[in-house]
Amino acid sequence: MSVCALIPAAGSGRRMRMKENKTRLLLRGKPVLIHTLSAFEACEAVDDVIVIAGSREVDLTCELIRTWGGSSKVREVVSGGATRQESVLCGLRRLTPGCEVVVIHDSARPLVRPSTIRMTIEAARKYGAAIVSVPMRDTIKVVKDGYVTKTLDRDALRAVRTPQAFQREIIEDAYVSAARDGFIATDDSMVVERKGVKVKVLEDELENIKITYREDLVIADSYLAIDKLMDGNGIMCSGSREHLERRVGIGFDVHRLVPGRRLILGGVDIPFDLGLEGHSDADVVLHAIADAILGACALGDIGVVFPCDDPSYEGISSKLILSRVRELAESHGYVVGNVDITVLAEKPKISGFAEEMRRNISSILRIAENHVGIKATTMEGLGFIGAGEGIACFASCNLVSRPLACDVGGSSGDS
Questions:
Q1: Looking at 120-242, which runs of residues are DSSP E strands?
Q2: N or C: lower Cβ tally within 10 Å for the chain?
Q3: Residue 137 phi/psi, 5° resolution?
Q4: Pair 358, 372: CB distance under 8 Å
Q5: What domains does the chain contain, in order, with CATH numbers?
């Protein structure tokens, strides 16, 4: 029986007071959506995945997935509707003929375990519909006009989560019927309950929380930190230490302006009668960022990593240089937190290109756009930059270390 996962991923982040989609926020250096997709990639019970994005974010979501190495199971990213319910219906319309079980999961639940996904799918095969839930910890009151009218039996209540899985004909019929009747549900199982379908309730893992408020990122980070300190049997490793080391790097680059060259800054091809001279495309912005990252890791500079006497690097795109530098930093256990850039140029004016530069840099470094600062200044006519003979750039970066893997064998002997 073919199984398709639908992942609604159009969360606005409104309750987090964020301007960007919350599924692109970083959790331990990786976007929330990528954490979620990784769980489905690792679940052998899932055959393919459809991600449902906002109508204006389909291309951005595709690029995000590609940037993080892609997913062999993501068949497509489709445009959703105005509400989550409409978005799920859009996903249902994209199912392949061979799909027999549908599992639906909120992209903002990045800590879901592959075993939980598999358990829910198996229950849907057996019972037709299945959901995961956790017991209520608090006493629940019904309140009207500021006064308690009733206290509910806490033992009979469950907090419902995703994943939720259904046999295809059940969920398709329920969603089409709800759309026709104008019925609005607060979760997927509510749509099939309306049709008289019994829904099997399963026990969820406590850490499968939803990223709704800012503090949820802190809670999710804590769960991931605990996982890093456990061995394969769930036992705390005696010799483990989580290093939350931060490093700061500063980079600088300068190139001469010459005729017959394209002017590329921050990965943007800027119309101008002069370009920067260099062995590569001479993008001083990306070069300065790369040097800042290398410096923070004590790995030298781009002249060492990408020597100018190596013909294989002639004309190389600085986007590729910066991407490789990021990978090098990650191989040494660091991820980029933020970067700040100051461009020194008398002309041309780059303010109109700053947003595109920011998008390029955030995509390459895999950080949010609001973690990329870009400023520009002139030299008031002073020096060779003031004379329009060249362009320079300063950059600083903040790196955060990733947690070290658990050493099951105990401590390394350090006192």
A1: 129-135, 141-144, 147-151, 158-167, 200-203
A2: C
A3: -95, -25
A4: yes
A5: 2-212 (3.90.550.10), 246-401 (3.30.1330.50)
**CA 140 to centroid of chain Cα atoms:** 35
Backbone angles phi, psi at 399, to 5 degrees: -110, 145
Angle between helices 354-365 and 284-296 (to 10 degrees): 40
> Which residues does 114 contact at the CB level (< 8 Å), separation at least 6?
39, 40, 42, 43, 44
Q: Is the pLDDT of residue 406 over 70?
A: no
With a cut of 50, say whether residue 413 has pLDDT above it: no
Per-residue pLDDT band at 235 (split at 50, 70, 90):
very low
Yes or no: say if 369 and 359 are a contact pair by the CB < 8 Å rule. Answer: yes
CA dihedral 378, 382, 384, 390 (to 10 degrees): 0
> What distance in Å separates the CA atoms of residue 267 and residue 361, rounded to the nearest whole number?
8
Question: Cα 304 to chain center, whole Å?
Answer: 31
Q: Round to whole Å and give the CA distance between 160 and 314.
A: 57
Residue 337 has pLDDT above 50, yes or no: yes
At 107-147, the pLDDT tens digits run: 999 999 999 999 999 999 999 999 999 998 889 999 999 99
Would you tell me the crossing angle of helices 354-365 and 318-331 to the nearest 10 degrees? 40
- Per the prediction, the chain carries an average pLDDT of 86
- Whether residue 163 has a cis bond before it, omega within 30° of 0: yes
Q: Is the pLDDT of residue 80 over 60?
A: yes
**For residue 315, what pLDDT is reported?**
74
Residue 40's Cβ-count burial label (10 Å; 0-12, 13-18, 19+) is: buried
Q: Is the pLDDT at 312 greater than 80, yes or no?
A: no
- Contact status, residue 243 vs residue 281, Cβ threshold 8 Å: no
